[in-house]
Amino acid sequence: MKRVAWLSLFLGSTSLAQTPDLAALEQAAQKRFAEWETQAKSLEERLARILPCDARSSAAIAEVRGLSDARLAALNDYMRAASAKAFAETAAARNLLSAEERRPIEAARERADAGQEQTAVDIQSDGLLQSINKRSSLQDAQKLLEQITALIRLRSAESERQADAAEKIVPMLRDLVAKFEARDVALQNESAAFEAERTRWSGYYSARQARAQTECSITQIGSPGLNPAAQPAKSPAKGKAK
Amino acid sequence: MKRSLSWFAGIWICGAAAALTGQTSREAYRQDYDAWREAHGNLERDAGSGGATLIPQVDRAAARVAAFGTNRAAYAKAAAQAAAQRRQILQAAATRPSPDLAPPALSAQVKSDLQTVTKTITRFADDKDRGIQQLRQSLERERDTLAALNEAIEARQKAVATTTAAANALEQARARTAETIAGDTSALSQNSVELEKETAAWAAYYEGLAMAIQIANAPPPPRVEITTVAPRNDTAPGIPRARYAGAWTYPTTNGSFHGAQPEFVDLVVHETNGHADGTLFARFKLSGTATDPLVRFDFQGDFATAALQRFPLVASDGTKGTIELIPGPAFNLLEVNFVVDPRQGKINVGNFILVKK
Fold this sequence. Notes:
heterodimer; A: Helix Hairpins; 6 helices; B: alpha+beta; eight-stranded antiparallel beta barrel
């Protein structure tokens, strides 16, 4: 059992150590976006200067599509990490609320304890006052007992104040947990929206590639076998070299 | 009273050990409380007439309250630490995804492409050429995908805006809650400190009670210096031996001294049947003509009934001298005076106040 516990502890610490760095993922997503944006913006302009059946035409679309896929993959990584972190926060907030909801009960017990101790000390004090009449040397002890009484009173007041504070904190935490949960729902919807957009981008680039092939094929009517745009593109540089 | 301190220390250590092993539940310290109250009984009422027979009961009550206090403070400390740990979630801003990863310009680009494709389709609408019709069909498929993409982008932008609004509302609530709860976290961490003060106060109370019972109503002894000629097994009322016996040390901060300044002092005093023996080991800051900072000597003799106890001492090199032990203003303080026959480069006089370990 000990080994299992240690292993769990080790795995737990390992998984914590492997928590993705959100800032690094955001930076990577921004970089992929910039790379894609540059090529995507100039795509139509570049295609307009290339003959329909030039292999560079298909290659240019494939390249932008690859950059788009890379961008959306980086964004997906970022969203997944952000969601994981957000859900962990919400779990911690729920845990906090659960503990704080128990605090007023604990504070009430402490107040009851302090009351019981106060009563006991009062009885001690009465007994000591009676004994001082017979033994004056007990006066110093009586002073010490008075100090203890004062300390218990302070503690009792403090525990009452803390119970009041706990009563105020719980509704705030309930509202906070609700907001954590609302944020998580929004985040889930955002992730789903990104995923839907990702599919649409893929569909668009397929349609754009199909149009390029159509443009080539209609210019090649009567010249069978000449349809380079329909062939898998190698690279713009190689196409240019040909 | 000799047994009082050893009992007290023993129970204190047991309490601390229990706290360290995690046995700091509320039930555990409440059991300690019940045991303490039971041991305490009616000490105050009995103190008026009772004698030395009450001392063992004082010892037991002191030990019980020490265990109770230690466990309760440990429980409060652990509870405060756990609460502070849980509340850490409120200290940092909640995660919010960056809204800049898919800027609005992206939507504009897609809309622009959609318009271009739509215009081209319109331009080819009436063209009967088979190739152009094929191209138009291809453009129509592209237009449909662009329209769907544009819709997806708008839906995503709305989702991002919703997340941003939710994250803003969350952040405001978090900051507000963190501010409200900060004072309470600080107060919780003070609980154990206050409880430790209470525990110390109870220890002082029981010591005071024991002293009061021991000295009864006898007038205070005259403050005359009595040497070690007092008979053994002296049972005359006076300052309890516990005010001298035990392990003492020089405080690391704000120590009181006169003459040579101690860097550290360890003093151990044993008491057996009214007989004292002890050892002092000290190091002083060098000043004047002294070149050896260390002082070590043993002493022994019988306790006197006076507050001031004086014993002959023998230093480690055989030199002789005298040490005086004077109870301090608090139970855990002891003033020490020593004089050793002068030797070349050695410290031969010291006066300082020690605290009980």
